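Request: Give me one sample?
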Amino acid sequence: MKINRLTEIIVILLNKKTVTAKDLANRFEVSTRTIYRDIESLSLSGIPVYMSKGKGGGISLLEEYSINKTILSDSDKHSLIVALKTLEATKYPEISSVINKISFMLNEENLSNWVEIDFSRWGSDFNENDKFSKIKIAILNNKIIKFSYINSFANKSIRIVEPMKLIYKGQAWYLYGFCRLKQNVRIFRITRIKNLILTEESFIKRKFEDTDFKNADKLIENMIDLKLQFKKEALYRIFDDFDQNLINDNEDGTYEVNIKLPENEWLYGYILSFGYYVKVIEPVHVKDIILQKMKKTINLYD
């Protein structure tokens, strides 16, 4: 549709100082004559777009121009705020000021007040000593970081890492990076990273196709097929934690869940958090581990 093309042209011009009509025509698979008509339409609608001739010439926006309400519909504004609010809920640093600036820029003071998103949970501060911000700087500037790390098996080690990407998954922030200790890609949970140092050493960013991001979970986590049987008293948590297609109703009123999860201390603690409302069916060795931990817990109170 023309309106979508016009909006995308504005976004392109905001990101590039100058672009030629031919480049735009190739991108949108239309004629240069169509592009010239689009530019005229934008100019008539109040967008400060202009064309210059000669070497280095092309289509540009006035330098003072920035995104504003002239190119955003109410639906666009609301979607933008939801996206920013979601990022804010992940505790991403400095995002609150961005939301305020966007609202002010769009001349909508109450734009961000209609939605509130909260992923907060009890636990440690993932950005202690500003480590999240340091990791972000390291990724953007190709700088090596060094830190102590405690994995899910309670093993502590010193890691030197080429940081690649920050990931938000399962209500927690993770770092994907090439670990020089393991000589492979690893995933690190931010809250388990301690004493982080942003070094001055630079590294050449590895190509994503040369790294195994899709299988990074398998590099540090032992994924297992788990079969759990829940009593009806735990139904509210089952619906909170699992997709509907993973839950099966049994004739005796219990519920069965089949899921693939990483086997580690977190998993054992998660199962135990259901108390006597859950029973491990498979695998047998996990059932035995849970039983041993329950016996040890009982011994603490004897």
Observations:
- The first helix runs from residue 2 to 15.
- DSSP finds ten helices and eleven strands in the chain.
- Residues 136 and 267 are 29 Å apart (CA to CA).
